[in-house]
Design goal:
430 residues; single chain; disordered C terminus; 8-stranded mixed β-sheet
Length: 430
């Protein structure tokens, strides 16, 4: 007699509550990912490098020296870490408590009730209640469920998919999103000044008030019987411009800093802020998008509220701003739309591929810079040297063919991206 196969619950919460002592193999991470995944509560107590805490109380101070000191500390944290705890950020503890209670109450509902808000990743719709599909390079699953939705601007969010229970979920989350958007403007202004730009420049470059999209993902990490083998969220960098994170004061965020995993301590009344890939690209690497992951534990449920501030997908070309580029520090990133950047990340197998890409692009830039100098000199020469210019143009034809081939390759990659909405949507919801 053949025994019936018991299906694995579709939600991690159900799996965690089923009484299992060992996690299914699809949740077990590869051996190379298990470094630093001990008891997270013990890891939090360790000394060593610590995520910087930035006090924003004086961000708008009328005292020039005090204001500059605050700006300098924020800039330094963005350049050295790419992540920080923000305190005195201007958002009331009362509002933050309402957001946390509302989100926690939703996840306290029975799974069957939450399923009414389920998304459909197979059709590319990631907004709503969901769990990670096995679409990563390793094919592994993450130990989390989540709720994902656009929260700002108001004309771009869909209240029909927002939780109706509890009743204060919508007003609390909407108000919090507005205040995060205002905070993002202040942060972008400081980071613009830090690059020697006008204070509104970075805000403009990421879409401005009309087009910068705020997406919220509530991450729910159930207790895990084997936390040393699983990850709540696998190692990644955020594709956003900025990411703002609240959590329920249970540790779990780890940052890859100076070759080691560092556990972020829980700082009361703070908001964690990440610099995302978008600002790293625009600043030509001066601001850092740090590799990070979410670790789980067997003692406490962890919940975090992440708001990703993202530029429009196809409207803006992301590339290092001219003011951040010199001959000594050429562009480290090729021009791409935000959608193309997500596709590029999704289809890269590892960081070595990305590093190789940067080296190739850097060499291409240096070759291009040399050629531009030649043409600039030719333009300044008299008309009698036009023949030399014509010869240069003939010589550059093979290079132009190579560029054309690169563009065709990029188009092919973008086509693959468009044909794989499920994977792209899942990447976007990380």
């Amino acid at each position: 007699m053949v025994s019936a196969v018991v299906p694995t619950p579709s939600r991690v919460e159900s799996l965690a509550k089923s009484g299992i002592q060992a996690i299914p193999k699809e949740y077990v991470r590869p051996q190379e990912e298990l470094n630093g995944m001990g008891n997270i509560f013990e890891e939090e107590k360790k000394g060593g490098p610590q995520v910087p805490t930035i006090d924003l109380k004086q961000i708008d101070s009328e005292d020039n020296e005090i204001r500059k000191r605050c700006h300098q500390e924020l800039k330094k944290a963005a350049m050295e870490w790419g992540v920080m705890h923000l305190v005195n950020h201007g958002i009331s503890d009362e509002l933050i408590d309402h957001v946390k209670v509302a989100g926690g109450t939703f996840f306290d509902l029975p799974v069957e009730e939450k399923e009414k808000y389920a998304n459909d990743q197979t059709s590319g719709n990631v907004q709503g209640y969901g769990s990670k599909l096995a679409n990563s390079a390793s094919g592994q699953l993450e130990w989390e469920d989540y709720f994902f939705h656009c929260v700002f601007p108001e004309d771009k969010h869909d209240l029909a998919i927002w939780p109706k229970t509890p009743t204060d979920y919508i007003p609390a989350t909407s108000e919090y999103a507005k205040q995060i958007r205002n905070l993002a403007t202040k942060i972008l202004a400081v980071l613009s000044i830090g690059l020697g730009l006008e204070e509104g420049r970075l805000e403009k470059e990421v879409g401005g008030m009309e087009d910068l999209l705020l997406q919220m993902k509530i991450n729910y990490y159930p207790k895990c019987p084997q936390p040393e083998l699983a990850l709540g969220v696998e190692a990644h960098t955020d594709v956003s411009a900025l990411t703002f994170i609240l959590h329920n004061m249970v540790p779990g965020l780890q940052l890859f800093y100076e070759g080691k995993w560092v556990t972020a301590k829980c700082v009361p009344n703070s908001i964690i802020m990440h610099i995302g890939d978008t600002l790293e690209i625009l600043s030509n690497g001066k601001y850092k998008s740090i590799l990070h992951r979410g670790v789980v534990n067997k003692e406490k449920v962890r919940i975090s509220w992440a708001i990703f501030c993202e530029p429009p997908k196809d409207k803006i070309i992301l590339k290092p701003l001219p003011e951040t580029v010199t001959d000594a520090d050429p562009p480290r990133f090729p021009p791409r739309t935000f959608a193309q950047h997500m596709a590029h990340k999704l289809f890269k197998k590892d960081d070595h591929d990305a590093a190789a890409d940067h080296k190739v692009y850097k060499k291409d830039y240096q070759d291009s810079a040399t050629e531009q100098k030649v043409f600039k000199k030719d333009d300044q020469d008299s008309a009698g040297k036009q023949k030399a210019v014509n010869k240069d143009n003939q010589d550059s034809a093979p290079e132009q063919k190579a560029v054309k081939k690169d563009e065709q390759d990029a188009a092919a990659e973008h086509k693959v991206f468009e044909n794989d909405n499920q994977d792209i949507a899942a990447e976007e919801s990380k």
